Amino acid sequence: MKSILTLSFCLSIIFGYSQNSTATAMATFSKNHFLVQYPKGWQVDTSGRLGTQVIVLSPLDNDSDKFSANLNVIIQDLKGQNIDLNRYKEITDDQLTQAVSDTTGMISKVIQSGKGSYYRVAYILTNGALKLQINSICYIKDEKAYLLTFSNEYDQLERYKKISQDVLNSFSITN
Q1: How far apart are CA 126 and CA 105, in angstroms?
Q2: How many of the other CB atoms lie within 10 Å of CB of 99?
Q3: How far is CA 71 from the centre of its chain?
């Protein structure tokens, strides 16, 4: 199985710029049996870089910004690997512990909701001077893991708290 953590981490760092989240109206992205909403005015990238289905980047506030809040969606084929949400959680927790030493405040749990069960992991990642808040959720259906990750600068936590919750909560599998 591809490294869950590596892709989320790389996307958070590689596509980093700062952002402006004043948009409250939402747009919808739909592809490969899923849909997710994101703030209108954010840039949508469907190039497939780093195995993503979509990367959505917030606009820059100004020329000195370092990081752009972003959402990325990855679909992983789990066929024949017998991985459920609890096993997915174990794998991700192990990867976070082993591969990324500068994480704090990790929350990792399987959640039961009206939309079904999903795995949630949230943590603070420090890379040099850059401190990020990472929020990910994962649904597993038909031996596929649908992983959504929302990343923003930690000092912008309050600015993006509701947006990240709305974006992640809007996700649904359509097949």
Answers
A1: 11
A2: 12
A3: 5
Determine which of 13-22, 35-44, 51-60, 158-167 has the lowest per-residue pLDDT on average: 13-22
Dihedrals φ, ψ of 167, to 5°? -65, -50
4-173: CATH superfamily: Mog1/PsbP, alpha/beta/alpha sandwich (3.40.1000.10)
Give the Cα-Cα-Cα angle 63, 163, 12 (nearest 5 degrees). Answer: 55
Predicted TM-score (pTM) of the model is: 0.85
Provide the residue ranges of all domains of the chain, joining segments of one domain with +. Answer: 4-173
How far apart CA 16 and CA 165 sit, in angstroms, is: 20
Q: Is the predicted pLDDT of residue 17 greater than 70, yes or no? A: no
